[in-house]
Every structure is written in C-alpha cells, then in structure tokens.
Amino acid sequence: MSPKKKISTAVIHRLPKYYRHLGELIDTGVQRISSRDLSLRMRVTASQIRQDLNHFGGFGQQGYGYNVSSLYNEIGKILGLGKIHNIIILGSGNLGQALAHYQYFKHRGFHIIGMFDKDEKIIGKEVGELKVMDIDQIPTFIKENNVEIGAIAIPKSEAKRMAELLVENGVKQIWNFAHLDLHLGDDVIVENVNLTESLMRLSFRAALEHRG
Amino acid sequence: MSPKKKISTAVIHRLPKYYRHLGELIDTGVQRISSRDLSLRMRVTASQIRQDLNHFGGFGQQGYGYNVSSLYNEIGKILGLGKIHNIIILGSGNLGQALAHYQYFKHRGFHIIGMFDKDEKIIGKEVGELKVMDIDQIPTFIKENNVEIGAIAIPKSEAKRMAELLVENGVKQIWNFAHLDLHLGDDVIVENVNLTESLMRLSFRAALEHRG
C-alpha cells in the first residue's frame, strides 16, 4: 500500500484546521503549545493530535509541546502550501463571483487568474480584477499560464463536459461546485463542494438530535 | 451511548449521496437495484452500503436488491427531508446572493425566506424574490416565522456575534461559511463550509499524489 492510501478522510479534514489554529496562535504571539492546550483549542483529543501528526513523522517533543511556528510551517508544507497555485473559474454567476472575491484564498497562495463564461452578454465584463473570457479561450489560456486548479461553478448540465475540457488541456485538480460526481481519471483529483448535501447533513444531524 | 453518537462522519457524508443517486435512478425509471449495481454506481463497496443502511435498520432483501423509490423515501426521512426547512441568510454579498439563487435547495425543501445585511446601501434591495432586511429586524423576523436554519455569509469578524444573536433568538441550526469555528452550545448544530480548507484539501491530495 502506498503512503498516500493511508491518510484517512478524517485526517485530511483536520490538517487544514490545525493549520488555521496554529496560524491564529502565531497571530496572538504564542510560540509554544502543549498537546493538551492544542487539543482543548481544537476540540479533539491530545492522542488524536499525536496520531494525526505521526502520519507525517510527528513534531512534538515529550513534555515540551509543539513549537507553534515550526509546526505551522511543516503542516503548510504537507498541505502543499508555501507556493502559488493558480486557479481558473468556469462560470461567472453569483457563485463564481463569490469565489473571485473571496479574500482568504490569495493569502494562502491560491490565486484566481482567470474566469470564463459562455454567455456573450457577460464576456468582457470585469469581476474584481478579472475580465471574463470566452470559454473557447480556455485551451490557449491553460497553455500560456500555469493553471493548476479548475473551479467548476456552472450548472450541472455543462459541468461534466467542461471538466473534461480542463482535464484534456492538462488541469489535474478540479474544484467542483456542481451537483454531480465527476470521475475524470485516476490522476485527476476532484474536491467536491456540494452545498445541497451540506444542508442535508445539517438537517440529518438535527433530525438525529430530536430522535436521540 | 445514545444512537446518535454511533453515526460516523463518513456515514453522514454518504447518506446524501445515496439520496442523490437514488433520485437519479428514479428519474431514469429504475425501480429496483442490486447492492452490487448500486455500489458500482456510488463507487463504494456493496458491503459498505449494507453496513451504512444497517445503521437505520437495513432496507434490502437477500437476492432481491433494493426497491429504489422506497429506499429513496426512507433515506429522505432519515435526512430530515420531506418537510420544509426555512432558512435565513445573514449577508447579502456575492456568497449570500449565490445561496439565494441556488435552485436545488427549494427542490429539497430548503426554503430561503429572508436575507439580512447591516449595510444601509443594500437594505431594501431585491435579491431574487427576497428583499434585503436590516439585521436589527432579525429577532422579530425569527419570532414571526418558523426559522430553522441561519446561514452565516458575513465576514469572520462579525460571524460569532451574529451567530450568537441567531441562537439567542431560538435558531438551533447554523450553516457557517465564515472562516472560523463556532461553538454555540451542545444543542446547536453547526455545519461548516470552509472554502479555504476545501482548497487546502485539494492541494494536500495533489501534493500527496506527487510524493506517493
């Protein structure tokens, strides 16, 4: 089994949270933190934290705790941060615009460098610092720019075809907001943000609360 | 241990997917499906499906497969669907507007009935079928309407205070898009949609792919 198979979904979900909390600790001047204090802050057990970090070699010293900024940097490296990741957005509707205006992405090295639409009334318009381009320009734009991530912010009916277009042109990371599963080959990574399913999880947990 | 503690995050994530796939099967006229065919479609193992559904009593018959529409209805009930869930959105920026325009929510019983902002330039404007209201009106609006879910689509700096305002006024389900953890009491359910963390998971898996 290759190392990448061993990292569970739960760990993948916790890593960005460690990173965020450590960043907040740095902002408030904390240099060192015990696994107990980190666990109280994160609301996971200290042993869970140790287990999670042991996937990557562990970073604490017995009785000494964690050096906040070095742990922050190491987790950042594990997360593939510390370099620039260029993103293009397909779809310039409300969601595409919300993504284009989201301030935290750039701070983490995620740069939105292009936005595309098929609607002639919108092509050429400005969204923040971007000018909306015609989807026909996607292949050329990808060739000329180092595009790592394609965000799919278009309706379900077009999503599969447009995701395939991105993959054909060499994009290996798809950030999918459309309401369908995309299977684009073993070497393509798809991260889904399905808002309807998110609402269903909320209502499921509420229903469970009432039953339980 | 109460029943609600036994349902893992992974199961909670799969239930809406079962629901979506079963809905798609209904749309294409499929009435019965074997656990093997459902597993191929869902890309989880047949034994995983059986295990997941056994949490709720199981729904298949040996050698007979699943009745698609009855399984769809049962999972819908488990998810707390089949009734109307009223939502208010705090924040009428791009994200709030994207949520207000999202078509699938209503189809699943999630009705967005109010939108609030503190910006006087925006209050009174129309977003789809909604008229943006002043955040000062939130307590009255909650009293007069059956608000189940509050969506937090405002900056981090205001998010905690506004989420607390919702909870003080009786809202027990918070759909949080702000870039922080909200801890609002044991009886309040928070579903987080953290887009920066979603991007980090994508870049983590891409970095892992290169290493692995």
Structural write-up:
The structure is a homodimer of 212-residue chains. Chain A is 47% helix and 17% strand. The first copy, chain A, has 2 domains: 3-78, Arc Repressor Mutant, subunit A (Orthogonal Bundle); 85-197, NAD(P)-binding Rossmann-like Domain (Rossmann fold), CATH 3.40.50.720. Chain A has a 6-stranded parallel beta sheet, with helices on both faces. In chain A, strands 1-2 form a two-stranded antiparallel sheet. In chain A, helix 9 links the parallel strand 8 (149-152) and strand 9 (173-176). The longest helix of chain A is centred in the first third of the chain and has 19 residues, at 9-27. The first copy, chain A, has 10 helices and 10 strands. Chain A is globular and about 60 Å long. The two termini of chain A are 39 Å apart. By secondary structure, chain A is α/β, with parallel strands linked by helices. Mean pLDDT of chain A is 90; it is low at 1-5. Chain A has helices at 3-6, 9-27, 35-42, 46-54, 68-78, 94-101, 104-107, 138-144, 156-168, 195-211, and strands at residues 32-33, 66-67, 85-90, 110-117, 126-127, 130-131, 133-134, 149-152, 173-176, 189-192. Chains A and B meet through helix 1, helix 2, helix 6 and helix 10 of A and helix 1, helix 5 and helix 9 of B.
Most residues in contact: chain pair = A-B, 63 and 63 residues
Q: Can you tell me the overall shape of chain A?
A: globular
Number of separate structural domains of chain A: 2
Distance between the termini of chain A: 39 Å
The appropriate CATH architecture of the largest domain in chain A is 3-Layer(aba) Sandwich
Give the C-alpha Rg of chain A. Answer: 20 Å
Regarding quaternary structure, how should these chains be classified?
Answer: homodimer
Number of H/I helices of chain A: 10
Helix-strand category of chain A: alpha/beta
Main β-sheet description of chain A:
6 strands, parallel
Fraction of helical residues of chain A: 40-55%
CATH superfamily of the largest domain in chain A: NAD(P)-binding Rossmann-like Domain
What topology, given as strand order, has the largest sheet of chain A?
Answer: 7-4-3-8-9-10
How many E strands of chain A? Answer: 10
CATH class of the largest domain in chain A: Alpha Beta
Unreliable runs of chain A: 1-5
Q: What is the mean predicted local confidence, pLDDT of chain A?
A: 90
What is the element string of chain A, with H for helices and E for strands?
HHEHHEHEHHEEEEHEHEEH
Percentage of residues in strands of chain A: 15-25%
- What is the CATH third-level topology name of the largest domain in chain A? Rossmann fold
